[in-house]
Amino acid sequence: MITIKSPREIALMKEASQILVTARQALFEKIQPGISTEALDQHADKIIRDLGGIPSFKDYEGYPKSICTSVNEVVIHGIPSEKVILKDGDIISIDIGVNVKGYHADSAFTYAVGNISEDAKQLLEVTEKALYIGIQEARPGNYVSNIGHAIENFIKPYGYGIVETFTGHGIGKELHESPQVLNYGPKNQGPKLKPGMTICIEPMINLGTKDVKVLSDGWTVVTEDKSLSAHFEHMILITEDGCEIMTTQKE
Question: Suppose 113 and one of 23, 36, 90, 101 were both cysteines; which one would form an S-S bond, judging by CB atoms 3.0 to 4.6 Å apart?
């Protein structure tokens, strides 16, 4: 069921969003060759809790850590580990969720570690642009499917693989709610967007094939061909006249 959020619920989600943005910025400043993904997780956990939030991902359906750290061919749900040490030329997607009084915020960004290849640079630039192309379709009266349609049309000329197995989603009291927000597909299908809806738009784009697989830990999703993958996500509030990106820095 798609829920319309009350002003109180929106205020709590905005509070969670600002904690998330603070944690995201702090992690960005830590990303460099030689740091472990476990150290990033511990840093994020402390910041989120110190600011009055709870990491949404910790113990979610058994997930063991507070953030997801997905390096290179890992698409999503990479589990932080002392054994995963970032090195020059890597890319890392960091997905963060924050819970404030039962309401969630969720966002992901992919970052360069040191000097990355031109192919990796373009993948990051294009995937981030695709996110904002999708956000442009997030307005009242528009179909949810038009978000994915716009993302797919933008990505197609680059020949990248658009991950279909995992998608964007509604969010609120639950980390994942209706509607499903695809990154591909036809126009003018499914539900229409209404003021008060909160959704996460999150293109996951691979340098090679769209095909992915889940590793034996039950969480880590990797590209089938071991190609690089980028992931950008914002949480969006549908307003009376458009939308508001909630997981961005307040002016």
Answer: 90
